[in-house]
Amino acid sequence: MIYRTRSFSINNQNGFSPEPLRRTKSTLDMRPVDAELRELRDLRRFIRVKKEDYQEASSAVNTILCKMDKEQLSNDFFKDNWENEKRKKEVGKALHFQPPSLSNILKSHGVVGQYKEVLTEEEIERKEEITRNFHRYKNAKMRFSLIRMAINCRCDEDSFFVAYYFSNPIGMLQLSTKDNIPTVVSFATDYLIRNCGYLLMEYAVNESVDLGKEGKLQLDALPRAEKAYFDMGFLKTTGDIMILEPAMSDKWHMINGHYKCIMC
């Protein structure tokens, strides 16, 4: 069975997104290397990938979602919700994270409003940047939430690969080996960290090699995700099914017995 892959977060950009949201900071421990990371094409020295069981993978996804909820309150990006949440605390009510509103966020950043019929070029760029990051946040939150609901003991035969930045989980790939061609079931990465998903895909490809499947992978891609997978060498077949054959793709090189993705 082919499962619709829940991700399209591979981006053909270098390193971390520069200044994603007006000094917005991830709750990840970015440390002093953050500025350097923005300029790197190869993140292997900072990001490690581990093969985990379904319980460890589920725990990693929970950690990512917990961090995203905290970011909703701590980031400048979500400051439109801060006062509402603060008031809830003051009246002794249980704290529940409310979905951020894009219109309120844009108003709080001064790029929309009653007197903002005409925007400067800088304000237009700022509005577009905030909107892009808002949708990245919402999409990542939805994908990780769906993945969390789908991971259970029935998945114990699947392979799970979790990407970590230092000790912080930032992405996960679930690989089913039940079919002749291994299937990428779920795939998602943190919304603030760009161009690192190919590292997870490398592990899936090499797992396929170890299984005697020549590194081949298949997945059922959402339409908006197709370009990202094309960029990694996947080709469209029947319906929404995409197939990767690394031996036939110029995006993949065999180095010291292992396939590596060459991101251009």
Commentary on this structure:
Helices cover 34% and strands 18% of the residues. The chain contains seven helices and nine strands; from the N terminus they run αβααααβββαβαββββ. α2 runs antiparallel to α5. The chain has 264 residues and is an alpha+beta fold. The strands form three sheets. It has a four-stranded antiparallel β-sheet with strand order 1-2-3-4, with helices on both faces. The protein has one domain: Gcn5-related N-acetyltransferase (GNAT) (Aminopeptidase), CATH 3.40.630. The N terminus is likely disordered. It starts with 33 loop residues before the first helix and ends with a strand.
Q: What's the structural domain tally?
A: 1
Query: What's the pLDDT, averaged over the residues?
Result: 77
- Per DSSP, what share of the residues sits in E-state strands of 2 or more residues? 15-25%
The string of secondary-structure elements, in order, is: HEHHHHEEEHEHEEEE
At the fourth CATH level, what is the homologous superfamily? Gcn5-related N-acetyltransferase (GNAT)
CATH topology category name: Aminopeptidase
Protein topology:
Layout: H1 34-37, E1 47-52, H2 54-74, H3 82-90, H4 102-108, H5 121-150, E2 159-165, E3 168-176, E4 183-189, H6 197-210, E5 217-220, H7 226-231, E6 235-236, E7 241-244, E8 252-255, E9 258-261
Antiparallel strand pairs: 1-2, 2-3, 3-4, 5-7, 6-7, 8-9
Helix pairs in contact: 2-5
Q: TL;DR?
A:
This protein is of the alpha+beta class and 264 residues long. It contains seven helices and nine strands, in the order H-E-H-H-H-H-E-E-E-H-E-H-E-E-E-E. The N terminus is likely disordered.
